[in-house]
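Researcher: If only I could read backbone structure tokens as easily as an amino acid sequence. Walk me, if you will, through where the backbone shape changes along the chain. I have put the entry right below:
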Amino acid sequence: MVESALIFLALATMLMGIFDFGQFLFVHQALVERARYAARWGAVNDASDTAAIKNMVLYNQGAAPLDAAVPFFNLSPSNVAVTNPDAGTNDYRINVQISGYTYTVLSPYIGGTYTGPPITVSVPLGLYN
């Protein structure tokens, strides 16, 4: 009984750690895909409309919704930055950066809310325009 209890505690702790790591990977990958989608959408539609590209990251539509829609993973507009460096040159691109997003860890001893690493996606446009 004692050995089973000790093994169960170790197993439960490892399973919670695996769950937390999987949750972090899911959130990170979902945000990367949303940033990629928004950058591609901006490349096809209007690369200079940074507000619409930012709305694509937040709401998956070009315009902010009229109702009180909750943005993707509770991001705020301050978490998303869209830039168009080197406009009019062969190095013209759309950069979408998501930073300051948070995720929750439930594992013992390290539980809490953490800030994820910044995500940057870049789509080159200079050679295609």
Remarks:
- The first strand starts at residue 80 and ends at 83.
